[in-house]
Specification:
Blueprint (H helix, E strand, L loop, with lengths): L1 H27 L4 H30 L2 H24 L5 H21 L1 H18 L2 H7 L7 H18 L1 E3 L2 E7 L2 E4 H19 L3 H20 L3 H19 L3 H20 L1 H11 L10 H13 L22 H9 L1 H24 L3 H25 L17 H64 L1
Length: 474
């Protein structure tokens, strides 16, 4: 009976994921957001239904009260968080808000499947991150001169990266995190946001080639420190975001060509000088040659994806725990095994929809500074998604990068909330400006309509007075 319930739920969830993805791209094709609100309402209902069905499957497999308590807590979050966001910001982008919720839904469910304690810890961080990032759109709206803090962003960012280089904890060949008092956080996740803010400010103020060179040197310092930490995945994300920001700021394609050439040389350098890079490349080229050691992780990932097929085995029916670090780098493999490749494809398409929405928001921004921020964060987001999923399916060598909102990890989760909050801030600011312009336009039209009436009334009064005068003379 339990197997039948799991199978039926699996197919219902596949249909719901497909409908959500359709609404996601249908929303992007509708110019008026008021016309798109019904789609967002349906998306939100789908998220709640998906969360209920998958939580029910988990409960019937373990029959623990803790599962019910966790579901109720998560449900309260899914009800309260969007309500507060829409109450505080009536111009909020509901598509990005709904996408955040569905990513969290899949992430929390899969983490609960992989380990209950990890899901609880992740959910606590979700709440903290939501509270911390909720005021960000308001603060950015009040601090329009954010560009003047560009050098402060540089100092703080480089300082954090140097701290990792000096006292960071080495994990899987790379020094990426700092451990203080039992708490571990990955500094590069926060620094990548400071990096975009700093580079956007400096490129906005760069009026000649010399100033552009200075900005490039500062960007290179960030990347070189990451290379020194052997955190090459983050270094690539920083590098690509800067190259595209330079292209947007200068509108010269030669910088894209130079960036591609530099990336190629950096890849060759990394292969020859870093042993863990060679290990990952060997595992990428032929993981079956050393399936018990170097190729074990990627082969288990491929086994999981292949076993799940298009529709998946169903929650709690697979063996995702056989993949090392499955909750971080290979979470998409676990989703594909038990929820199906169709669900994994839907998640990829939703990520693509987020990227498209971010780029559209950037094009609407009049200020070059905020336009560069939107482009930089969008490139970082889509690059991170590409590196995570590409490594899991053996499309590229594994880089150790997490999937935003879905993978386990507090630093990545907080950074993802920060990125979406900043993008939301720009959407809200532009929406408020449009409303002001529209209100001013309506007022001016009302004045134009009133003025002819006043003139006509004055003319009629003058005409009457003149006629009375002639009558008196007669």
């Amino acid at each position: 009976m339990l197997t039948l319930f799991t199978s039926i739920t699996k197919y219902i969830c596949l249909i719901l994921a497909g409908l959500y993805t359709y609404c996601n791209f249908r929303y992007l094709s509708i110019p008026d957001k008021e016309d798109a609100d019904p789609l967002c309402d349906w998306q939100y209902r789908i998220v709640l239904l998906l969360h209920f069905l998958m939580s029910a499957v988990l409960f019937f497999h373990d029959m623990k009260k803790e599962t019910v308590f966790l579901y109720i807590s998560e449900l309260l979050y899914f009800l309260l968080y969007p309500m507060l966001c829409r109450r505080f910001y009536h111009n909020i982008n509901r598509l990005l808000l709904n996408n955040t919720l569905i990513f969290l839904c899949y992430g929390l469910i899969m983490l609960e499947r992989l380990g209950f304690s990890k899901s609880v810890k992740q959910f606590v961080i979700v709440i903290l991150a939501s509270v911390l990032t909720l005021p960000i759109p308001y603060l950015i709206d009040k601090i329009w001169d954010l560009v003047r803090w560009r050098f402060a962003f540089v100092v703080v960012g480089i300082g954090l990266l140097l701290s990792v280089l000096a006292i960071g904890v080495t994990s899987y060949g790379a020094r990426m995190s700092i451990s203080i008092g039992g708490f571990t956080f990955q500094a590069s996740e926060i620094v990548k946001i400071l990096f975009v803010l700093a580079m956007a400010g400096m490129l906005d103020q760069a009026h000649n080639f010399k100033e552009l060179c200075v900005t490039t040197v500062i960007a290179a310092v960030h990347v070189l420190i990451l290379v020194g930490c052997r955190d090459l995945g983050s270094a690539l994300i920083f590098f690509l975001s800067y190259i595209f920001m330079v292209f947007i700021a200068t509108n010269q394609k030669r910088y894209l060509v130079l960036g591609a050439a530099a990336a190629g040389m950096a890849a060759v350098f990394s292969y020859h000088f870093f042993s863990h890079v060679r290990t990952r490349v060997f595992a990428f080229i032929d993981p079956w040659a050393d399936i018990s050691d170097k190729g074990y992780q990627i082969t288990q990932s491929l086994f999981a994806i292949g076993t799940g097929g298009f529709t998946g085995l169903g929650l709690c029916q697979g063996m995702p725990k056989k993949i090392p670090i499955v909750e971080k780098d290979f979470i998409i493999s676990a989703i594909s095994e038990e929820l199906g490749a169709a669900t994994a494809i839907a998640i990829i398409l939703i990520c693509l929809g987020c990227f498209m929405q971010m780029m559209m928001i950037g094009t609407y921004m009049e200020s070059l500074f905020y336009k560069l921020i939107a482009v930089g964060l969008a490139i970082q987001y889509v690059t991170q998604v590409f590196l995570t999923i590409g490594g899991a399916i053996k499309f590229i060598p594994s880089t150790g990068v997490t999937l935003p909102f879905i993978s386990y990890g507090g630093s990545s989760l907080i950074a993802s909330f920060l990125v979406f909050a900043i993008i939301q801030a720009m959407f809200i600011i532009q929406g408020n400006e449009d409303e002001k312009e529209l209100s001013a336009l309506y007022q001016s039209r009302e004045q134009e309509m009133d003025e002819p009436d006043s003139a006509q009334e004055g003319y009629s009064a003058e005409q009457v007075s003149e006629s009375e005068l002639f009558d008196d003379e007669e």
